Amino acid sequence: IYAKAAEVMVENEAEITLRKQTREFWIETLPTPQASGLVQLRLETPPVTAVNSVKYYDSAGVQQTLSTGAYSFIADGNPPLVCIDYYQLPVGLALPYASIAFRKQDEWRVNYTCGIVGTGTNQAGDSTLPELAQLAIMELVAYWYRDREAFAAQAKPTGPYAGLINNLRWRGYP
Length: 174
Hints:
By secondary structure, this protein is α+β, with helices and mostly antiparallel strands. 25% of the residues lie in helices and 24% in strands. It has a four-stranded antiparallel sheet with strand order 1-7-3-4, with no helix packed on it. It has a three-stranded antiparallel sheet with strand order 2-6-5, with no helix packed on it. The longest helix has 16 residues, at 131-146. It is elongated, with a radius of gyration of 20 Å. The protein starts with a helix and ends in a 6-residue tail after the last helix.
């Protein structure tokens, strides 16, 4: 139980996704397009390995799947981006939807896969997490074991742990 809690804390602190998982990003309205006509959506749980679908509600309030030709995916961006081509959106789909009286919540949804590793194990049967992540998890569990009151207060160690988290951190943007 300590190891799983530490893994979640390491993910949150380093702003990364360690294990492969499918997530969904949603936004009520698309941001204003850039001069090029691209609308950029930032996926905040790197590394993102695939975009599975982009869905939206049409003018009749029915959920539709956006054609893969209408968006691109930049996996190595910092952060990873889904770029929707405003000029390839279906006819009648206009921004910023101010005139639509029946607006749906979560109007745009991006379903994507993220994570550093899959769910497999190496030959020794250990986790396939990167060594730095394993060290950070072990450091955190050891800290909680040494100072049991700190676990209840969600405290975290400094020193080596902070250095490991900084090395694991994915992004360098504000």
